[in-house]
Amino acid sequence: MNFGFTQEEENIRKEVRAFFQKEATPELVKEIAENTGATGPGIGRKLVQKMGAKGWLCPTWPKEYGGLDSSETISFIIRDEMAYAGGPVSLVGATMAGPSILKFASGEMKREYLPRIARGEIEMILGYTEPQAGSDLAALEIRAEDKGDYFLINGQKMFNTHAHFAEYHWLGARTDTSAPKHKGISLIIVDMKSPGITVRPMTSIAGGKTNEVFYDNVKVPKKNVVGEVNRGFYYIMTALDFERMFPFGGVRRILDELVRYTSTTKREGKLLSKDPVIRQKIAEIAIEVEAAYTLYYQQAYMLDKGQIPNYQSSMQKVFSSEAAFRAFDVATAIMGPRGQLQRSSKWAPIDGEAELHYRWAIIEDIYGGTSEIQRNIIALRGLGLPAR
Ligand SMILES: Cc1cc2nc3c(=O)[nH]c(=O)nc-3n(C[C@H](O)[C@H](O)[C@H](O)COP(=O)(O)OP(=O)(O)OC[C@H]3O[C@@H](n4cnc5c(N)ncnc54)[C@H](O)[C@@H]3O)c2cc1C
Protein backbone atom coordinates (compact mmCIF):
# COMPACT_ATOMS: atom_id res chain seq x y z
CA MET A 1 0.00 0.00 0.00
CA ASN A 2 1.25 3.47 -0.88
CA PHE A 3 -0.50 6.54 0.49
CA GLY A 4 1.72 9.02 -1.34
CA PHE A 5 1.61 10.62 -4.78
CA THR A 6 4.09 10.00 -7.60
CA GLN A 7 6.57 12.70 -8.63
CA GLU A 8 4.48 13.35 -11.77
CA GLU A 9 1.38 13.88 -9.60
CA GLU A 10 3.24 16.19 -7.20
CA ASN A 11 4.55 18.19 -10.17
CA ILE A 12 1.09 18.70 -11.65
CA ARG A 13 -0.24 19.74 -8.23
CA LYS A 14 2.47 22.42 -8.00
CA GLU A 15 1.75 23.61 -11.52
CA VAL A 16 -2.02 23.79 -10.96
CA ARG A 17 -1.54 25.53 -7.58
CA ALA A 18 0.68 28.19 -9.16
CA PHE A 19 -1.86 28.67 -11.96
CA PHE A 20 -4.70 29.27 -9.51
CA GLN A 21 -2.65 31.53 -7.25
CA LYS A 22 -2.48 33.84 -10.27
CA GLU A 23 -5.97 33.26 -11.69
CA ALA A 24 -8.21 33.07 -8.60
CA THR A 25 -8.81 36.81 -8.28
CA PRO A 26 -11.44 38.13 -5.82
CA GLU A 27 -13.69 38.87 -8.84
CA LEU A 28 -13.50 35.24 -9.98
CA VAL A 29 -14.17 33.85 -6.50
CA LYS A 30 -17.18 36.21 -6.22
CA GLU A 31 -18.58 35.11 -9.58
CA ILE A 32 -18.22 31.43 -8.69
CA ALA A 33 -19.91 31.99 -5.32
CA GLU A 34 -22.80 33.84 -7.02
CA ASN A 35 -23.31 30.91 -9.38
CA THR A 36 -23.46 28.17 -6.73
CA GLY A 37 -19.99 26.83 -7.51
CA ALA A 38 -20.31 27.05 -11.28
CA THR A 39 -18.19 29.09 -13.66
CA GLY A 40 -20.76 31.73 -14.52
CA PRO A 41 -20.82 33.46 -17.86
CA GLY A 42 -17.97 35.94 -17.36
CA ILE A 43 -14.43 35.56 -16.07
CA GLY A 44 -15.18 32.01 -14.91
CA ARG A 45 -15.78 30.95 -18.51
CA LYS A 46 -12.46 32.50 -19.56
CA LEU A 47 -10.75 30.62 -16.72
CA VAL A 48 -12.10 27.24 -17.77
CA GLN A 49 -11.06 27.98 -21.34
CA LYS A 50 -7.50 28.58 -20.14
CA MET A 51 -7.70 25.29 -18.26
CA GLY A 52 -9.13 23.61 -21.35
CA ALA A 53 -6.20 24.85 -23.43
CA LYS A 54 -3.88 23.01 -21.02
CA GLY A 55 -6.03 19.85 -21.13
CA TRP A 56 -6.88 20.27 -17.42
CA LEU A 57 -10.68 20.39 -17.71
CA CYS A 58 -11.04 16.75 -18.80
CA PRO A 59 -7.53 15.36 -18.39
CA THR A 60 -8.55 11.69 -18.41
CA TRP A 61 -10.33 11.87 -21.76
CA PRO A 62 -8.64 10.56 -24.90
CA LYS A 63 -6.57 13.17 -26.75
CA GLU A 64 -8.96 13.07 -29.75
CA TYR A 65 -11.67 14.58 -27.48
CA GLY A 66 -9.43 17.22 -25.88
CA GLY A 67 -8.04 15.26 -22.92
CA LEU A 68 -4.54 14.26 -21.94
CA ASP A 69 -5.14 10.52 -21.51
CA SER A 70 -4.06 11.08 -17.88
CA SER A 71 -4.91 9.09 -14.76
CA GLU A 72 -7.98 9.88 -12.63
CA THR A 73 -5.65 10.68 -9.74
CA ILE A 74 -4.30 13.62 -11.74
CA SER A 75 -7.82 14.75 -12.55
CA PHE A 76 -8.79 14.58 -8.86
CA ILE A 77 -5.67 16.58 -7.89
CA ILE A 78 -6.57 19.31 -10.40
CA ARG A 79 -10.15 19.56 -9.08
CA ASP A 80 -8.96 19.62 -5.48
CA GLU A 81 -6.56 22.49 -6.16
CA MET A 82 -9.29 24.31 -8.07
CA ALA A 83 -11.67 23.97 -5.10
CA TYR A 84 -8.95 25.11 -2.67
CA ALA A 85 -8.44 28.27 -4.70
CA GLY A 86 -12.18 29.09 -4.76
CA GLY A 87 -12.51 28.14 -8.43
CA PRO A 88 -15.47 26.28 -9.96
CA VAL A 89 -16.39 23.03 -8.21
CA SER A 90 -19.50 22.33 -10.23
CA LEU A 91 -18.49 21.61 -13.83
CA VAL A 92 -21.41 19.70 -15.31
CA GLY A 93 -20.04 19.16 -18.82
CA ALA A 94 -16.52 18.24 -17.76
CA THR A 95 -17.22 16.09 -14.71
CA MET A 96 -20.82 14.77 -14.89
CA ALA A 97 -22.42 14.82 -18.36
CA GLY A 98 -19.15 14.49 -20.32
CA PRO A 99 -17.96 11.27 -18.63
CA SER A 100 -21.45 9.81 -19.20
CA ILE A 101 -21.36 10.79 -22.91
CA LEU A 102 -17.96 9.12 -23.13
CA LYS A 103 -19.41 5.96 -21.62
CA PHE A 104 -22.83 5.68 -23.26
CA ALA A 105 -23.19 7.94 -26.32
CA SER A 106 -22.64 7.27 -30.03
CA GLY A 107 -19.39 8.22 -31.77
CA GLU A 108 -21.22 11.09 -33.52
CA MET A 109 -22.45 12.53 -30.22
CA LYS A 110 -19.00 12.21 -28.65
CA ARG A 111 -17.43 14.11 -31.54
CA GLU A 112 -20.13 16.78 -31.39
CA TYR A 113 -19.93 17.61 -27.67
CA LEU A 114 -16.78 16.30 -25.99
CA PRO A 115 -14.12 18.47 -27.68
CA ARG A 116 -16.16 21.63 -27.02
CA ILE A 117 -16.67 20.65 -23.35
CA ALA A 118 -12.96 19.90 -22.96
CA ARG A 119 -12.05 23.30 -24.42
CA GLY A 120 -14.48 25.03 -22.02
CA GLU A 121 -16.55 26.41 -24.91
CA ILE A 122 -19.87 24.96 -23.74
CA GLU A 123 -21.45 24.15 -20.39
CA MET A 124 -24.44 21.95 -19.54
CA ILE A 125 -27.20 22.01 -16.93
CA LEU A 126 -28.41 19.01 -14.97
CA GLY A 127 -32.11 18.72 -15.80
CA TYR A 128 -33.33 16.09 -13.36
CA THR A 129 -35.45 17.58 -10.56
CA GLU A 130 -39.13 18.54 -10.95
CA PRO A 131 -41.59 19.88 -8.38
CA GLN A 132 -42.83 16.31 -7.64
CA ALA A 133 -39.58 14.45 -8.47
CA GLY A 134 -36.46 15.08 -6.38
CA SER A 135 -35.26 12.13 -4.31
CA ASP A 136 -37.73 9.98 -6.23
CA LEU A 137 -36.31 10.93 -9.60
CA ALA A 138 -38.14 8.16 -11.45
CA ALA A 139 -41.36 10.13 -10.77
CA LEU A 140 -40.34 12.76 -13.33
CA GLU A 141 -43.14 13.78 -15.69
CA ILE A 142 -41.74 16.16 -18.27
CA ARG A 143 -42.94 14.59 -21.49
CA ALA A 144 -40.93 14.00 -24.68
CA GLU A 145 -43.42 12.84 -27.29
CA ASP A 146 -42.16 10.93 -30.33
CA LYS A 147 -43.11 12.91 -33.45
CA GLY A 148 -41.16 10.95 -36.08
CA ASP A 149 -37.78 12.62 -36.48
CA TYR A 150 -38.09 14.83 -33.40
CA PHE A 151 -39.39 14.87 -29.81
CA LEU A 152 -41.95 17.44 -28.70
CA ILE A 153 -41.19 18.35 -25.10
CA ASN A 154 -43.59 19.86 -22.56
CA GLY A 155 -43.30 20.25 -18.78
CA GLN A 156 -41.24 21.80 -15.99
CA LYS A 157 -37.91 21.35 -14.22
CA MET A 158 -36.77 23.06 -11.05
CA PHE A 159 -33.47 23.70 -9.21
CA ASN A 160 -31.60 23.58 -12.53
CA THR A 161 -28.55 25.46 -11.44
CA HIS A 162 -26.66 26.54 -14.56
CA ALA A 163 -29.76 27.25 -16.69
CA HIS A 164 -29.26 31.03 -16.73
CA PHE A 165 -26.01 30.80 -18.68
CA ALA A 166 -25.25 27.26 -19.93
CA GLU A 167 -25.72 26.26 -23.56
CA TYR A 168 -27.24 22.76 -23.19
CA HIS A 169 -29.76 21.00 -20.97
CA TRP A 170 -28.85 17.45 -19.87
CA LEU A 171 -32.50 16.56 -19.68
CA GLY A 172 -34.21 13.55 -18.13
CA ALA A 173 -37.62 13.25 -19.87
CA ARG A 174 -40.39 10.68 -20.06
CA THR A 175 -40.51 9.02 -23.49
CA ASP A 176 -42.73 6.04 -22.58
CA THR A 177 -45.73 6.61 -20.33
CA SER A 178 -46.85 2.97 -20.36
CA ALA A 179 -43.56 1.41 -19.14
CA PRO A 180 -42.65 1.02 -15.42
CA LYS A 181 -41.51 4.44 -14.27
CA HIS A 182 -37.73 3.70 -14.32
CA LYS A 183 -37.97 2.26 -17.82
CA GLY A 184 -39.73 5.07 -19.65
CA ILE A 185 -37.14 7.83 -19.23
CA SER A 186 -34.62 9.04 -21.82
CA LEU A 187 -31.65 11.35 -21.47
CA ILE A 188 -31.74 14.09 -24.10
CA ILE A 189 -29.34 16.96 -24.83
CA VAL A 190 -31.33 20.12 -25.56
CA ASP A 191 -30.00 23.38 -26.98
CA MET A 192 -31.10 26.05 -24.49
CA LYS A 193 -31.74 28.46 -27.38
CA SER A 194 -34.55 26.22 -28.66
CA PRO A 195 -37.84 28.15 -29.04
CA GLY A 196 -40.31 27.42 -26.21
CA ILE A 197 -37.81 27.27 -23.29
CA THR A 198 -38.25 29.77 -20.44
CA VAL A 199 -35.81 30.07 -17.51
CA ARG A 200 -36.99 31.61 -14.22
CA PRO A 201 -34.42 32.28 -11.46
CA MET A 202 -34.62 31.00 -7.87
CA THR A 203 -32.14 32.17 -5.21
CA SER A 204 -30.59 29.59 -2.90
CA ILE A 205 -29.85 30.12 0.80
CA ALA A 206 -26.20 30.63 -0.20
CA GLY A 207 -27.24 33.56 -2.39
CA GLY A 208 -26.40 31.79 -5.65
CA LYS A 209 -28.78 31.27 -8.51
CA THR A 210 -30.60 28.11 -9.42
CA ASN A 211 -33.62 28.03 -11.76
CA GLU A 212 -36.96 26.72 -12.88
CA VAL A 213 -37.03 25.73 -16.57
CA PHE A 214 -40.29 25.52 -18.53
CA TYR A 215 -40.76 23.64 -21.80
CA ASP A 216 -43.63 24.69 -24.05
CA ASN A 217 -43.80 22.61 -27.27
CA VAL A 218 -40.02 22.45 -27.67
CA LYS A 219 -38.86 20.47 -30.72
CA VAL A 220 -35.67 18.45 -30.24
CA PRO A 221 -34.07 16.25 -32.93
CA LYS A 222 -34.06 12.54 -32.10
CA LYS A 223 -30.31 12.35 -32.63
CA ASN A 224 -29.96 14.27 -29.35
CA VAL A 225 -30.89 11.20 -27.27
CA VAL A 226 -27.92 9.90 -25.29
CA GLY A 227 -27.41 6.16 -25.83
CA GLU A 228 -30.64 4.17 -26.10
CA VAL A 229 -34.18 5.57 -25.80
CA ASN A 230 -35.81 4.66 -22.43
CA ARG A 231 -32.45 3.79 -20.78
CA GLY A 232 -32.04 7.34 -19.45
CA PHE A 233 -32.72 6.56 -15.79
CA TYR A 234 -29.72 4.19 -15.68
CA TYR A 235 -27.45 6.72 -17.41
CA ILE A 236 -28.59 9.38 -14.92
CA MET A 237 -27.67 7.09 -12.02
CA THR A 238 -24.12 6.83 -13.42
CA ALA A 239 -23.93 10.59 -14.01
CA LEU A 240 -25.02 11.06 -10.36
CA ASP A 241 -22.16 8.80 -9.22
CA PHE A 242 -19.77 11.15 -11.04
CA GLU A 243 -21.51 14.22 -9.51
CA ARG A 244 -21.05 12.92 -5.96
CA MET A 245 -17.26 12.76 -6.24
CA PHE A 246 -16.95 16.37 -5.30
CA PRO A 247 -13.66 17.92 -4.18
CA PHE A 248 -13.01 18.98 -0.59
CA GLY A 249 -10.42 21.70 -1.22
CA GLY A 250 -12.72 24.47 0.11
CA VAL A 251 -12.67 22.94 3.61
CA ARG A 252 -8.91 22.38 3.46
CA ARG A 253 -8.56 26.10 2.73
CA ILE A 254 -10.79 27.04 5.69
CA LEU A 255 -8.63 24.86 7.94
CA ASP A 256 -5.51 26.74 6.77
CA GLU A 257 -7.32 30.07 7.16
CA LEU A 258 -8.45 29.14 10.68
CA VAL A 259 -4.92 28.22 11.71
CA ARG A 260 -3.71 31.59 10.38
CA TYR A 261 -6.64 33.55 11.88
CA THR A 262 -6.40 32.05 15.37
CA SER A 263 -2.62 32.44 15.37
CA THR A 264 -2.87 36.18 14.68
CA THR A 265 -6.10 37.21 16.46
CA LYS A 266 -6.32 38.04 20.15
CA ARG A 267 -9.37 37.99 22.42
CA GLU A 268 -9.00 39.57 25.85
CA GLY A 269 -5.28 39.92 25.21
CA LYS A 270 -4.73 36.24 24.44
CA LEU A 271 -4.17 34.59 21.07
CA LEU A 272 -7.16 32.45 20.06
CA SER A 273 -4.78 29.65 19.11
CA LYS A 274 -3.82 29.31 22.79
CA ASP A 275 -7.40 28.59 23.86
CA PRO A 276 -7.58 24.81 24.51
CA VAL A 277 -11.19 24.48 23.31
CA ILE A 278 -10.42 26.27 20.05
CA ARG A 279 -7.33 24.10 19.50
CA GLN A 280 -9.42 20.95 20.02
CA LYS A 281 -12.07 22.14 17.57
CA ILE A 282 -9.51 22.93 14.88
CA ALA A 283 -7.84 19.56 15.43
CA GLU A 284 -11.23 17.88 14.89
CA ILE A 285 -11.58 19.64 11.53
CA ALA A 286 -8.07 18.48 10.59
CA ILE A 287 -9.03 14.85 11.30
CA GLU A 288 -12.16 15.16 9.16
CA VAL A 289 -10.21 16.73 6.31
CA GLU A 290 -7.86 13.72 6.30
CA ALA A 291 -10.76 11.26 6.40
CA ALA A 292 -12.57 13.08 3.57
CA TYR A 293 -9.43 12.98 1.44
CA THR A 294 -9.08 9.24 1.92
CA LEU A 295 -12.64 8.77 0.65
CA TYR A 296 -12.03 11.27 -2.19
CA TYR A 297 -8.84 9.65 -3.51
CA GLN A 298 -10.21 6.12 -3.03
CA GLN A 299 -12.56 6.97 -5.89
CA ALA A 300 -9.70 8.07 -8.14
CA TYR A 301 -7.95 4.79 -7.31
CA MET A 302 -11.05 2.79 -8.27
CA LEU A 303 -11.58 4.70 -11.52
CA ASP A 304 -7.94 4.16 -12.44
CA LYS A 305 -8.60 0.45 -11.99
CA GLY A 306 -11.58 0.63 -14.38
CA GLN A 307 -14.29 0.49 -11.68
CA ILE A 308 -17.04 3.13 -11.23
CA PRO A 309 -17.41 4.08 -7.56
CA ASN A 310 -21.02 3.71 -6.60
CA TYR A 311 -21.88 3.48 -2.89
CA GLN A 312 -18.31 4.75 -2.35
CA SER A 313 -19.20 8.09 -3.98
CA SER A 314 -22.29 8.21 -1.73
CA MET A 315 -20.01 7.68 1.27
CA GLN A 316 -17.73 10.49 0.18
CA LYS A 317 -20.65 12.82 -0.61
CA VAL A 318 -22.43 12.33 2.69
CA PHE A 319 -19.26 12.50 4.78
CA SER A 320 -17.79 15.49 2.94
CA SER A 321 -20.95 17.59 2.91
CA GLU A 322 -21.65 16.93 6.61
CA ALA A 323 -17.98 17.45 7.57
CA ALA A 324 -18.00 20.72 5.60
CA PHE A 325 -21.02 21.86 7.58
CA ARG A 326 -19.29 20.99 10.90
CA ALA A 327 -16.10 22.80 9.81
CA PHE A 328 -17.89 26.02 8.83
CA ASP A 329 -20.03 25.84 11.96
CA VAL A 330 -16.87 25.68 14.09
CA ALA A 331 -15.18 28.40 12.03
CA THR A 332 -18.04 30.89 12.44
CA ALA A 333 -18.36 30.06 16.16
CA ILE A 334 -14.63 30.68 16.77
CA MET A 335 -14.97 34.07 15.09
CA GLY A 336 -17.78 35.04 17.48
CA PRO A 337 -20.53 37.46 16.41
CA ARG A 338 -18.35 38.87 13.63
CA GLY A 339 -18.27 35.38 12.11
CA GLN A 340 -21.85 35.99 10.98
CA LEU A 341 -20.95 39.05 8.90
CA GLN A 342 -21.16 38.66 5.15
CA ARG A 343 -18.51 39.33 2.53
CA SER A 344 -19.72 42.88 1.89
CA SER A 345 -18.74 43.93 5.47
CA LYS A 346 -15.21 45.17 6.07
CA TRP A 347 -15.46 43.70 9.59
CA ALA A 348 -16.09 40.16 8.35
CA PRO A 349 -13.15 37.89 9.33
CA ILE A 350 -11.43 36.10 6.43
CA ASP A 351 -13.58 38.15 4.06
CA GLY A 352 -16.83 36.48 5.18
CA GLU A 353 -15.74 33.19 3.64
CA ALA A 354 -16.71 31.01 6.61
CA GLU A 355 -20.16 32.62 6.81
CA LEU A 356 -20.77 32.12 3.07
CA HIS A 357 -19.61 28.51 3.07
CA TYR A 358 -21.66 27.75 6.17
CA ARG A 359 -24.77 28.57 4.12
CA TRP A 360 -23.32 26.77 1.12
CA ALA A 361 -22.71 23.61 3.15
CA ILE A 362 -26.45 23.44 3.88
CA ILE A 363 -27.22 23.03 0.18
CA GLU A 364 -24.34 20.61 -0.44
CA ASP A 365 -26.23 18.27 1.82
CA ILE A 366 -29.17 18.41 -0.63
CA TYR A 367 -28.04 18.61 -4.26
CA GLY A 368 -26.80 15.47 -6.00
CA GLY A 369 -29.12 13.55 -3.63
CA THR A 370 -29.72 14.31 0.05
CA SER A 371 -27.76 12.70 2.89
CA GLU A 372 -30.74 10.42 3.67
CA ILE A 373 -30.72 9.16 0.08
CA GLN A 374 -26.93 8.61 0.20
CA ARG A 375 -27.32 6.56 3.39
CA ASN A 376 -30.06 4.51 1.73
CA ILE A 377 -27.70 3.81 -1.22
CA ILE A 378 -24.91 2.75 1.14
CA ALA A 379 -27.29 0.41 3.00
CA LEU A 380 -28.71 -1.08 -0.20
CA ARG A 381 -25.78 -1.25 -2.61
CA GLY A 382 -22.88 -1.22 -0.16
CA LEU A 383 -24.17 -3.46 2.61
CA GLY A 384 -26.72 -5.49 0.66
CA LEU A 385 -29.56 -4.62 3.04
CA PRO A 386 -32.96 -5.24 1.43
CA ALA A 387 -34.87 -2.43 -0.31
CA ARG A 388 -37.75 -1.19 1.78
C1 LIG B 1 -29.07 24.79 -4.48
C2 LIG B 1 -29.57 23.58 -5.18
C3 LIG B 1 -29.11 23.29 -6.44
C4 LIG B 1 -29.61 22.19 -7.14
N1 LIG B 1 -29.20 21.98 -8.43
C5 LIG B 1 -29.81 21.03 -9.18
C6 LIG B 1 -29.54 20.91 -10.58
O1 LIG B 1 -28.68 21.62 -11.13
N2 LIG B 1 -30.24 20.02 -11.29
C7 LIG B 1 -31.20 19.21 -10.73
O2 LIG B 1 -31.81 18.43 -11.45
N3 LIG B 1 -31.48 19.29 -9.40
C8 LIG B 1 -30.82 20.18 -8.61
N4 LIG B 1 -31.12 20.31 -7.28
C9 LIG B 1 -32.19 19.49 -6.73
C10 LIG B 1 -31.75 18.46 -5.72
O3 LIG B 1 -31.08 17.39 -6.31
C11 LIG B 1 -33.02 18.03 -4.96
O4 LIG B 1 -33.48 19.15 -4.23
C12 LIG B 1 -32.76 16.87 -4.04
O5 LIG B 1 -32.51 15.70 -4.77
C13 LIG B 1 -33.94 16.62 -3.07
O6 LIG B 1 -35.16 16.58 -3.76
P1 LIG B 1 -36.41 17.45 -3.25
O7 LIG B 1 -35.95 18.86 -3.07
O8 LIG B 1 -37.55 17.20 -4.17
O9 LIG B 1 -36.73 16.90 -1.81
P2 LIG B 1 -37.59 15.58 -1.46
O10 LIG B 1 -37.19 14.47 -2.36
O11 LIG B 1 -39.03 15.94 -1.42
O12 LIG B 1 -37.08 15.26 0.00
C14 LIG B 1 -37.55 15.96 1.16
C15 LIG B 1 -36.90 15.33 2.37
O13 LIG B 1 -37.33 13.96 2.49
C16 LIG B 1 -36.20 13.10 2.55
N5 LIG B 1 -36.47 11.86 1.82
C17 LIG B 1 -37.02 11.74 0.59
N6 LIG B 1 -37.10 10.45 0.22
C18 LIG B 1 -36.56 9.72 1.24
C19 LIG B 1 -36.33 8.34 1.45
N7 LIG B 1 -36.67 7.43 0.53
N8 LIG B 1 -35.75 7.94 2.61
C20 LIG B 1 -35.38 8.87 3.56
N9 LIG B 1 -35.59 10.20 3.41
C21 LIG B 1 -36.15 10.63 2.27
C22 LIG B 1 -35.07 13.86 1.87
O14 LIG B 1 -33.79 13.43 2.34
C23 LIG B 1 -35.38 15.30 2.32
O15 LIG B 1 -34.86 15.54 3.59
C24 LIG B 1 -30.58 21.36 -6.54
C25 LIG B 1 -31.03 21.63 -5.23
C26 LIG B 1 -30.54 22.72 -4.56
C27 LIG B 1 -31.04 23.01 -3.18
Walk me through what this model shows:
The model has no long low-confidence stretch (mean pLDDT 94). This protein has a four-stranded antiparallel beta sheet with strand order 2-3-7-6, with no helix packed on it. Strands 1-4-5 form a three-stranded mixed beta sheet. It has helices at residues 7-23, 26-34, 43-54, 72-84, 92-104, 107-118, 232-243, 249-264, 276-304, 311-334, 353-364, 371-382, and strands at residues 124-127, 143-146, 150-157, 168-174, 185-191, 197-203, 209-221, 266-267, 270-271. By secondary structure, it is α+β, with helices and mostly antiparallel strands. It has three domains: 7-90, Butyryl-Coa Dehydrogenase, subunit A, domain 1 (Orthogonal Bundle), CATH 1.10.540; 126-230, Beta Barrel (Butyryl-CoA Dehydrogenase, subunit A, domain 2), CATH 2.40.110.10; 244-382, Butyryl-CoA Dehydrogenase, subunit A, domain 3, CATH 1.20.140.10. β2 and β3 (150-157) form a beta hairpin. 45% of the residues are buried. The protein binds flavin-adenine dinucleotide.
